[in-house]
Amino acid sequence: MNKKKKDKISISAIIVHNKRARNEYFITEEFQAGLSLQGWEVKALRAGKASIGDSYVLLKDGEAYLFGATFQPVTVGSSYIVCAPMRARKLLLNKREIESLTRFVHREGYTIIALSLYWKNAWIKLKIGVAKGKKQHDKRKYIKKRIWELDKARILKRASR
C-alpha cells in the first residue's frame, strides 16, 4: 500500500532550464546528480545568475564533471575569494550510475548534457540526459509536430465551446 511518489519537480524549484536541449538532441535517458559547489556559486544560483546552455558532462577516472556551465558571481561577495565562473564542477553520482553513463557514452554519437538545475529540499540537483544529436531534418520535423499539437489543441478547444 506504500506507493512510491514520482520525482516531479515543481516549476518554482527550477533554477535554470536548458531550452535548446530538447530541440537539438534526442534524450534517451535522464539522471539526477548532485553538485559539488562553493559558497559563492550557491549565492549565484539563489540570485538566478547561472547558465547551462552549452554545458556537457565528461567522465574521467570513474568520476563525472560538468563543463561549460557559467555561474556569474554576485557582486556583494568577498574580495579575497577567487571566483571562476567557468570551472569544472564535480557531479555526485553513484558508482552504478557512472558505469551506466559510461556504457551509454561509449556508443557512437552519444553524449551527456545538462537539462536543468533545480532545488530539491535544501540541495541543488542537476538533471542530466544521455543524448544523441538531431539532424537538421529531424529538427524541422520536431518543430512541425509541435506546431501541429498546438493547432490541434486550439481547434479542439474551439470545438468544445
Automatic annotation (TrEMBL):
<dbReference type="GO" id="GO:0070929">
    <property type="term" value="P:trans-translation"/>
</dbReference>
<dbReference type="GO" id="GO:0003723">
    <property type="term" value="F:RNA binding"/>
</dbReference>
<dbReference type="InterPro" id="IPR023620">
    <property type="entry name" value="SmpB"/>
</dbReference>
<dbReference type="Pfam" id="PF01668">
    <property type="entry name" value="SmpB"/>
</dbReference>
<dbReference type="InterPro" id="IPR000037">
    <property type="entry name" value="SsrA-bd_prot"/>
</dbReference>
<keyword id="KW-0963">Cytoplasm</keyword>
<keyword id="KW-0694">RNA-binding</keyword>
<protein>
    <recommendedName>
        <fullName>SsrA-binding protein</fullName>
    </recommendedName>
</protein>
<dbReference type="InterPro" id="IPR020081">
    <property type="entry name" value="SsrA-bd_prot_CS"/>
</dbReference>
<dbReference type="GO" id="GO:0070930">
    <property type="term" value="P:trans-translation-dependent protein tagging"/>
</dbReference>
<comment type="function">
    <text>Required for rescue of stalled ribosomes mediated by trans-translation. Binds to transfer-messenger RNA (tmRNA), required for stable association of tmRNA with ribosomes. tmRNA and SmpB together mimic tRNA shape, replacing the anticodon stem-loop with SmpB. tmRNA is encoded by the ssrA gene; the 2 termini fold to resemble tRNA(Ala) and it encodes a 'tag peptide', a short internal open reading frame. During trans-translation Ala-aminoacylated tmRNA acts like a tRNA, entering the A-site of stalled ribosomes, displacing the stalled mRNA.</text>
</comment>
<comment type="similarity">
    <text>Belongs to the SmpB family.</text>
</comment>
<dbReference type="GO" id="GO:0005829">
    <property type="term" value="C:cytosol"/>
</dbReference>
